[in-house]
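Backbone shapes recur. Consider a single case.
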Amino acid sequence: MAHTTFPSSIPKPIDDGACNHLPGTKFPSLSLPSTSGSSTDIATLTGLTILFCYPRTAAPNETVPDEWNQIPGARGCTPQACSFRDLSKELLEAGVSNVFGCSVQDTEYHRELKERTRLPYELLSDEEGDLKKALKLPEMEWEGKKLIKRLSMVVEDGVILKVFYPVFPPDRSAGEVLEWLQNEYQGRKTLSTEVENETMRNLQKR
């Protein structure tokens, strides 16, 4: 499998607040091309969906220039993708129904990455920038192309519950999401169930 570790010398991105508007937002209905050969509309999916976005992955024989490495948040797209591969079983056990990766790269490029790194989930292409525009996702520019900055979203029944941004280090991306699901999300569900049960008991007493 692909190497998933991440060099410690890479600069850390700062939280510029560019994702503060996303929690609680209804996910836009968009059909994004998928490595499955069809299109996926995340807004229509039920249950928990994880969508992680990243700037771009390098081709197998591509030499990554040092200029790219020195951009905070640029380096580490393949380690991020592999982190979700490595924790796919644990995410499923935590109640996740779907995991998707997304960048502005095209589907053929994504398909090569999926096969090479043996990703068990599909990759979605926002090549036209529709998702980026609809959700006003943070951008970075490289060689004249506007890319999506690295982030992860937890979507439940078409609504964005939680956003992880910035994501650093990227090889801890899936672990960060899993920790939130196991602690905060499950805690919310337990509290909600207790409140509902108490309400029902009070109603039955009347």
In short: The longest strand covers residues 96-103. The helical segments are 66-69, 77-86, 88-93, 107-117, 130-135, 173-205. Confidence is low (pLDDT under 50) at residues 191-195, 197-201. The CA atoms of residues 103 and 129 lie 9 Å apart.
